[in-house]
Write a structure and sequence with these properties.
By secondary structure, this protein is an all-alpha fold. The chain has one domain. Helices cover about 60% and strands about 0% of the residues. The chain is built from 19 helices and two strands. The chain has a two-stranded parallel sheet with strand order 1-2. Helix 2 packs antiparallel against helix 4, helix 2 crosses helix 6 and helix 6 crosses helix 10. The N and C termini lie far apart (about 70 Å). The N terminus and C terminus are likely disordered.
C-alpha cells in the first residue's frame, strides 16, 4: 500500500515524480508578487468551489492518492462480483437492523480507483470545507497594530492564508486517505444523495496481499461493512445530528490572527526576496498539520469533542456488533479478516488522523470499545429488537452516561429486560442499609 509519512501532507517523498508544488500556486516564472497574488486567490477568499480552490486541492489529492500514475480500469469481473455481493449484503443487513439500506432504492457497490474515490470524496466533503473556510474568514486587523504597518501586514497576510492553508492541507489529507481507503465510509460521515457505495479495489487488493487474506471473504466483509454504515448514516435524524455537531465544531474554530501568526512566526515574507526560499519555508510550515490545527482549535471545540465522540461511538459500536452477527455466518475466515481490518483502523499515523481531527472526529480505540460495549450490553439484555430501538428518533441516541451504562438507556427507553444490578450503572446508595426484607432474609 502507498505509504503515508508522519512528517506532514507535503512530504516530498509522498508527491509523485515530476509533480511541481509551485504549479499549485501559479509560480509565474518565479515572480513572487504573482505567486502571492495567485496563492491568495486560490479559494476566492477562502470559499472552496467559488473559484479554482477546490479543483486545485482535488488535483493535489488525486496526485498523492494515485502516486502520479495513470490508474488502470477495474477488472470487469470484480465489478460483477461486487454487484452480486451488494444484493447479499443488503438483504442480510436489512434483516439484522430493521433499517432501510437505501434512501431511494436498492444500494449498489461501485469498484473505483484511488483517484476516483478522491474526486467523489472531495465533492462529498465540500459542504464541510465551505463551513471551515467561512468560519475562518479573514478578520479585521487589530486597530492597535495601526502604528506598526509591518506587523499589520503580517497579521493580515496570515489571516488570509489560514482558510487557504486549511483547505489545501485537507485536500492533501484526502489524497492520503484515498491512498489507503477501502470504501466510502472509512470516515463514518453521511454522504447524502446517493445509494452507490464505493470500494477502492487497488487498496483492497493490496491489503489482502499484505495480510494474506482470501479475496472473496474480504470482498464480502467490505460489502457488509459499507451497507451497514450506509443504513445507519442514512437515517435522517442521525445524518442531521452529525451535520449539526460538525457545523458547530467547524464554526467554532478560533478566528484569532495572532494564533496563526505565532505558529508561522518563522516565515520570512520578502516580496523582493528569493521565491524558491519563500516557497520552501511555506511548504515546511504547512507540513505540520497538528501544529496548524492546535493553533486554531478553540475551547468551544474542546467542549464539543466528548459529545461528538458519544455519537460516533454509538454508530461504530452498533456497526461492529451487526458485522459480527452477520459476518460470522457468511464468511469462513471472518475472525482473521476482522482482526486485520479493525487493527488497521486504529493504527493510523498522525497525518492520517488530521482529517478526522479537523472535523472533530477522534476515532480512537476507546471510542470503538465504548460503542461496542454499549451495543453488546443492550443486546445481552434486550436482544436485537431492543438494540435496534437506538435509531427510533434523535431522542433515542444515548447520552454519555448511558453509553457507559446500557441499563440506563434501556430504562429511559422503557424497554423491558432482565435487569442485573451493576454498581457501575446504578446508584446503589439507597441500598447500603438493609431493609426489613433483607434483615428477614439474614435471619433465616
Amino acid at each position: 500500500m502507498h505509504g503515508v509519512s508522519d512528517s506532514g501532507p507535503f512530504d516530498d517523498d509522498d508527491l509523485p515524480e515530476g509533480f511541481d508544488f509551485s504549479n499549485l500556486f501559479g509560480g509565474a516564472g518565479g515572480d513572487p508578487n504573482a505567486m502571492m497574488a495567485s496563492f491568495m486567490s486560490l479559494f476566492s477568499g477562502g470559499i472552496p468551489g467559488a473559484g479554482g480552490g477546490l479543483d486545485q486541492a482535488t488535483q493535489l489529492a488525486v496526485a498523492i492518492a494515485s502516486g502520479g500514475q495513470t490508474e488502470p480500469n477495474v477488472d470487469p469481473t470484480v465489478r460483477m462480483a461486487l454487484e452480486q455481493l451488494a444484493r447479499v449484503a443488503e438483504l442480510q443487513i436489512a434483516q439484522a437492523t430493521g433499517l432501510r439500506t437505501g434512501t431511494s432504492g436498492p444500494v449498489s457497490i461501485a469498484p473505483v480507483t484511488r483517484g476516483e474515490w478522491v474526486k467523489r470524496s472531495m465533492q462529498a466533503y465540500k459542504p464541510v470545507l465551505e463551513q471551515l473556510a467561512a468560519a475562518m474568514a479573514t478578520p479585521a486587523v487589530d486597530d492597535e497594530l495601526g502604528s506598526d504597518p509591518q506587523m499589520a501586514m503580517f497579521q493580515q497576510l496570515f489571516s488570509s492564508l489560514r482558510p487557504m492553508m486549511v483547505n489545501m492541507t485537507t485536500g492533501s489529507m484526502v489524497g492520503h486517505l484515498g491512498s489507503k481507503a477501502l470504501g466510502t465510509y472509512d470516515l463514518p460521515l453521511p454522504r447524502p444523495g446517493s445509494d452507490e457505495l464505493l470500494v477502492v479495489v487497488p487498496n483492497l487488493d493490496a491489503f489482502g496481499e499484505e495480510w494474506s487474506l482470501e479475496t472473496n471473504g474480504l470482498q464480502m466483509w467490505i460489502a457488509l461493512s459499507e451497507v451497514a454504515h450506509h443504513a445507519v448514516l442514512s437515517v435522517p435524524h442521525v445524518a442531521q445530528r452529525i451535520s449539526a455537531l460538525l457545523g458547530r465544531y467547524t464554526n467554532a474554530f478560533r478566528n484569532d490572527p495572532s494564533a496563526l501568526t505565532d505558529s508561522l512566526s518563522g516565515f520570512d515574507f520578502n516580496p523582493t526576496g528569493d521565491f524558491a526560499e519563500m516557497q520552501e519555508q511555506l511548504q515546511s510550515m504547512l507540513g505540520d498539520p497538528s501544529a496548524l490545527l492546535g493553533a486554531m482549535r478553540s475551547p468551544e471545540q474542546e467542549a464539543l469533542l466528548p459529545e461528538i465522540a458519544v455519537l460516533m461511538a454509538a454508530i461504530v459500536g452498533y456497526v461492529d456488533h451487526v458485522m459480527d452477527q452477520v459476518g460470522s455466518t457468511l464468511i469462513t475466515d471472518y475472525g482473521q479478516l476482522t482482526e486485520a481490518l479493525r487493527r488497521r483502523r486504529v493504527t493510523a499515523s498522525e497525518s492520517d488522523r488530521f482529517v478526522e481531527r479537523l472535523l472533530g472526529l477522534e476515532l480512537t480505540q476507546d471510542v470503538y470499545d465504548r460503542g461496542r460495549a454499549f451495543a453488546d450490553g443492550v443486546f445481552e439484555r434486550a436482544g436485537s429488537a431492543g438494540l435496534n430501538r437506538l435509531w427510533d428518533s434523535e431522542e433515542s441516541l444515548p447520552t454519555a452516561n448511558e453509553l457507559d451504562a446500557p441499563g440506563l438507556w434501556l430504562a429511559r427507553m422503557d424497554i423491558e429486560f432482565e435487569m442485573e444490578i451493576d454498581p457501575a450503572e446504578f446508584d446503589l446508595s439507597e441500598l447500603d442499609d438493609p431493609g426489613p426484607a433483607d434483615e428477614a432474609d439474614d435471619s433465616d
